[in-house]
Design a protein that fits this description.
Length: 425
């Protein structure tokens, strides 16, 4: 079912907001506690379709997940049970890849499937190393695509060197190798939430540069998690605050793990007025209040580690670039093409619809800043982050913008539109 949003430009955005819990941390808080030796309480868990997919899979394997007021209690079974039915991961790549790792280490057979977008996404990057560890895995397209069939069991300990930096792949391999020990090196450091959580749950885990070494771990202590606000969700309001004249927005309790803060560095380098006020996070992942005021932006070059640290935020960073003076060049971001949609193609097409001169590159894009005007119709193609990025662009365009495929925002941020309208009131 296609949902079309009409977003009309309007006055300044003002007020304060708590964005929902971090999606990456929410998946991991459920999954890792589902493997622990006792029950744990999760506060501020993201409630969205993607996280529901992970919760549903864990329930199918015998984990009890119960909502109690504003928290979730996770009660793992003594041993995960074999799911009776195929597990539907919906649109969620994180669910599918991390669950592949979990299942590979269990004496069970499971099938993982997902929606049309997820069934097109590359899975060989997870399946090949799982095969090397000794799991029996199959999939469509010669074992590269979902649905995936996994028969897990006793695996071999291995040392991996990945040729793509990917937190999903790294996490899947750590989860698969948890009982026998495993080490994973990446070309650049991707988000490290799995490592931080495993260490806090008592696993013997060492980080040497870009290599993570996990020792054989029989028991994981349960970990109560207070999930910080999602910087990937906050990014939409950071850009909106910059480009809509007269705005001032305070985003409270946002996670600022340095592997995730590329968007702050990008916007500040473009000239954005963003204040970062650290708040106490009781020894867990760092959090801060972020205050953004409208700013005049200039184009910059975004590549290397900076592109990786802002991977999911690059479409909305490109929207900021459309309102900036001068050119912005995004490179080293070929992985953007393997997300929920080809985000290079979708972002460039959307910007052009709004009258902006933008061009695709194999590993990124070039955006020549100017005056995005509209009106226009942008097709998000079922990709939540494209839908939200162009809703933000619409706020500062002269004409209105229609966004097709807006139902997709439910995968990461069901309340996005209400939060946006709330800041305009
Ligand atoms: C995620 C990792 C990233 C990111 C995705 C969530 C995670 O993907 O794009 O939205 O939670 O591990 P890769 O690091 O696998 O590219």
């Amino acid at each position: 079912m296609n949902v079309r949003w009409e977003v009309v430009p309007g006055g300044p955005l003002r007020g304060s907001l708590r964005v929902p819990g971090d999606k990456s941390i929410s998946h991991r808080a459920l999954l890792l506690n589902g493997l622990a030796s006792g029950s744990a309480v999760i506060r501020n868990l993201l409630r969205s379709e993607d996280v529901d997919a992970t919760a549903g899979a864990l329930r199918a394997m015998g984990v009890e997940i119960e909502e109690q007021g504003d928290t979730f209690v996770v009660r793992p079974p003594v041993r995960l049970k074999e799911p009776e039915q195929p597990i539907d991961c919906g649109n969620s790549g994180t669910s599918m890849r991390l669950l592949s790792g979990v299942i590979a280490a269990e004496p069970m057979f499971a099938v993982l499937t997902g929606d049309a977008s997820l069934r097109r996404r590359p899975m060989a990057r997870v399946l090949d190393p799982l095969r090397q560890m000794g799991a029996e895995v199959g999939g469509r397209g010669g074992g590269r695509l979902a649905p995936l069939a996994i028969r897990g069991g006793q695996l071999r300990s291995m040392d991996f060197s990945l040729n793509i930096a990917s937190a999903q792949v790294k996490s899947a391999l750590l989860l698969a190798g948890r009982r026998v020990g495993v080490s994973v090196e990446e070309p650049e450091q991707s988000r490290n939430h799995t490592e931080l959580m495993l260490a806090r749950m008592g696993a013997s885990l060492e980080v040497h540069g870009r290599r993570v070494v996990l020792g054989a771990t029989e028991k994981l202590e349960p970990l109560n998690v207070d999930v910080p606000g999602d910087i990937s969700a906050a990014a939409f309001f950071l850009v909106a605050g910059c480009i809509v004249p007269g705005s001032e927005i305070c985003l409270r309790g946002v996670g600022v793990n340095p592997t995730r803060t590329g968007i702050l560095d990008i916007l500040r380098a473009m000239g954005a007025d963003i204040e970062i006020v650290p708040v106490d996070s009781a020894g867990a992942e760092p959090q801060a209040d972020l205050i953004v005021r409208s700013s005049s932006l200039k184009g910059i070059a975004i590549g290397g580690t900076l592109a990786l640290r802002a991977l999911d935020e690059l479409p909305v960073a490109a929207v900021a670039a459309a309102f900036a003076e001068g050119d912005t060049v995004i490179s080293d971001a070929a992985e953007l093409r393997a997300k929920e949609s080809d985000r290079v193609a979708r972002t460039v097409a959307g910007l052009r619809t709004l009258g902006i001169d933008a061009e695709e590159r194999p590993d990124g894009m070039v955006i020549r800043g100017g005056r995005p005007c509209g009106p226009g119709l942008v097709d998000a193609n079922g990709d939540h982050r494209i839908a939200m990025a162009f809703s933000v662009a619409a706020l500062a365009c002269e004409g209105g913008v229609w966004v097709d495929g807006a139902e997709s925002v439910a995968s990461s941020y069901p309340g996005f539109r209400d939060h946006l309208e709330g800041l305009r009131a």
